[in-house]
C-alpha cells in the first residue's frame, strides 16, 4: 500500500503507537535557508541523529523532518505573533485527540508547553507518521457513511469542549451582479478576433456560459440570515486533509489551521461537494453524498431544512465565484476554494434534485430502510 510522506504534509502522533497521525504542513516556499536552532529538540528531551530535512509548503512557514534517537519527528515553525491562535488550536486538537478521534495532538516539551519559543520564532513538534491519501470517489458507500459520521463526531466533540458560539450569524451573500461584472471584465480582456487562438475561443465560451447562468439565476440568491446550528468547524474537510490506513479507515484528519466557526450544515455540504465531485461536467456522485450525510446525521443530527439551505448557499457561492475561471482560462493565480468551475453548470441544471438528495437522509423512509436507499444499491 503506497504511503504519503510528501513535502505537503506534516505528521503528528498520538500518545500511543496505534494513534499516530499525519498533518499537512504549511511551510515556507521550499523550507530552505537556515535550519531550526541546533539545541531546540533538547527542549523535548530529544537528540538529533541526522540533519533536519526541510519540507516545502505554501503559507510562509518553515517545517522539517528531523531524525532523532526516538525516531523521526515533524517540526513546524510559526511567527511569534501567531502564538495565541496556535495555542487555541492546540487546545482544541488536543481535546479531540483525548476523545479518541484521529486528530493531531502536539507533543509537549519538558516544560509542558506545546509551543516553544526560540530565536524569535515559535515551534511545535509531532512524531512523524506516513499515511495514504484517497479521493472521495474511491470510497465505498459504507466508507462514505463512516467518513460523514467522523465529521459529525468532530462537530459534536468541538461543541462539547469549546464555549458556545453565537447562534445569530450574519453570513454575507455574494451578489450575482458583482460576479457578472467580473465576467464582463474578463471577456473584455480577451484578445481581439484577429489574434485569437482556439483556447481563447474556448475561454470566451466558458465565460459566456457563466454569464448566462448568472443572468438566469439572479433571482435565486439565498438570504443573508438563516436559522441554523452554528458551531466550531474544521474549516477544510476534504480529501487533501485526510489520511487512510491500509484497511481504508481514517487515521488522520489534517488541516486544522483552517479552524473556524459557522453553520454546521454548511460544512457538511461543502465537504460532500469537495469529496464527491467528478472532474469537469460529471457533477456530484449523489449516492456517495447521501451516504456521507447519513453518517453525519447519526453523530450530529441537524434537520432537512438546514441541509437544504446549506446546499442552496453552496451552489450560489460557487455560481458567483469566478476565481476558478480566471485561473483555468486566463492563467491567473488562485483557483479559489470551491474547486473546478465545471461543476457549476451541472449543479445549476440539477439544483432541485441536489436539494432533495442532500436532505434525503433526514426523511423517515431513508432513515428506516438504509439498505434500500440508492447509496446502498
Record the SSE blueprint:
Blueprint: E1 10-12, E2 21-23, E3 48-55, E4 63-68, E5 71-79, H1 83-98, E6 116-118, E7 121-127, H2 141-161, H3 176-189, H4 198-216, E8 230-233, E9 242-244, E10 250-253, E11 260-263, H5 264-275, H6 286-299, H7 304-320, H8 323-330, H9 342-349, H10 351-359, H11 364-368
Antiparallel strand pairs: 1-2, 3-4, 4-5, 5-7, 6-7, 8-11, 9-10
Helix pairs in contact: 2-6, 3-4, 5-6, 5-7, 6-10, 7-10
Description:
By secondary structure, this protein is an alpha+beta fold. About 40% of the residues lie in helices and about 15% in strands. Strands 3-4-5-7-6 form a 5-stranded antiparallel β-sheet, with no helix packed on it. Helix 5 (about 265-275) packs across helix 7 (about 305-320).
What average pLDDT do the residues reach? 83
Low-confidence spans: 1-32
Provide the β-strand percentage band: 5-15%
The computed structural class is alpha+beta
Q: Trace the largest sheet across and list its strands.
A: 3-4-5-7-6
SSE order, as H and E? Answer: EEEEEHEEHHHEEEEHHHHHHH
Q: Percent range for helical residues? A: 25-40%
What is the overall shape? globular
Using brief descriptors, characterize the structure shown.
about 375 residues; alpha+beta; two-stranded antiparallel sheet; disordered N terminus
Amino acid at each position: 500500500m503506497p504511503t504519503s510522506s510528501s513535502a505537503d504534509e506534516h505528521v503528528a502522533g498520538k500518545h500511543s503507537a496505534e494513534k499516530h497521525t499525519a498533518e499537512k504542513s504549511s511551510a515556507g516556499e521550499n523550507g530552505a535557508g537556515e535550519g531550526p536552532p541546533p539545541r531546540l529538540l533538547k527542549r523535548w528531551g530529544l537528540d538529533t541523529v541526522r540533519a533536519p530535512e526541510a519540507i516545502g509548503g505554501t503559507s510562509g512557514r518553515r517545517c522539517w523532518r528531523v531524525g532523532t534517537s526516538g525516531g523521526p519527528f515533524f517540526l513546524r515553525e510559526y511567527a511569534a505573533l501567531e502564538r495565541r491562535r496556535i495555542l487555541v488550536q492546540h487546545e482544541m486538537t488536543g481535546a479531540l485527540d483525548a476523545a479518541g478521534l484521529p486528530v493531531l495532538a502536539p507533543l509537549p516539551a519538558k516544560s509542558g508547553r506545546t509551543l516553544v519559543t526560540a530565536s524569535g520564532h515559535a515551534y511545535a513538534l509531532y512524531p512523524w507518521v506516513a499515511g495514504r491519501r484517497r479521493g472521495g470517489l474511491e470510497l465505498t458507500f459504507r466508507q462514505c457513511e463512516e467518513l460523514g459520521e467522523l465529521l459529525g463526531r468532530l462537530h459534536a466533540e468541538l461543541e462539547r469542549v469549546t464555549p458556545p458560539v453565537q447562534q445569530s450569524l450574519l453570513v454575507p451573500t455574494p451578489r450575482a451582479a458583482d460576479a457578472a461584472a467580473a465576467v464582463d471584465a474578463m471577456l473584455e480582456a480577451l484578445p481581439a478576433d484577429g489574434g485569437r487562438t482556439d483556447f481563447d475561443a474556448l475561454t470566451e465560451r466558458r465565460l459566456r456560459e457563466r454569464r448566462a447562468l448568472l443572468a438566469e439565476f439572479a433571482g435565486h440568491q439565498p438570504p443573508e440570515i438563516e436559522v441554523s446550528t452554528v458551531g466550531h468547524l474544521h474549516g477544510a474537510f476534504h480529501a487533501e486533509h485526510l489520511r487512510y490506513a491500509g484497511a481504508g479507515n481514517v487515521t488522520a484528519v489534517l488541516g486544522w489551521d483552517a479552524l473556524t466557526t459557522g453553520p454546521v450544515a454548511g460544512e457538511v455540504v461543502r465537504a460532500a461537494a469537495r469529496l464527491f465531485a467528478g472532474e469537469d461536467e460529471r457533477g456530484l456522485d449523489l449516492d456517495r453524498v447521501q451516504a456521507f450525510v447519513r453518517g453525519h446525521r447519526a453523530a450530529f443530527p441537524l434537520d432537512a431544512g438546514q441541509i437544504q439551505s446549506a446546499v442552496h448557499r453552496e451552489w450560489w457561492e460557487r455560481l458567483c465565484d469566478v476565481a476558478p475561471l480566471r485561473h483555468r482560462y486566463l492563467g491567473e493565480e488562485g483557483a479559489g476554494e470551491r474547486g473546478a468551475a465545471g461543476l457549476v453548470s451541472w449543479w445549476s441544471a440539477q439544483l432541485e434534485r441536489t436539494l432533495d438528495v442532500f436532505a434525503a437522509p433526514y426523511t423517515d423512509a431513508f432513515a428506516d430502510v438504509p439498505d434500500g436507499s440508492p447509496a446502498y444499491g
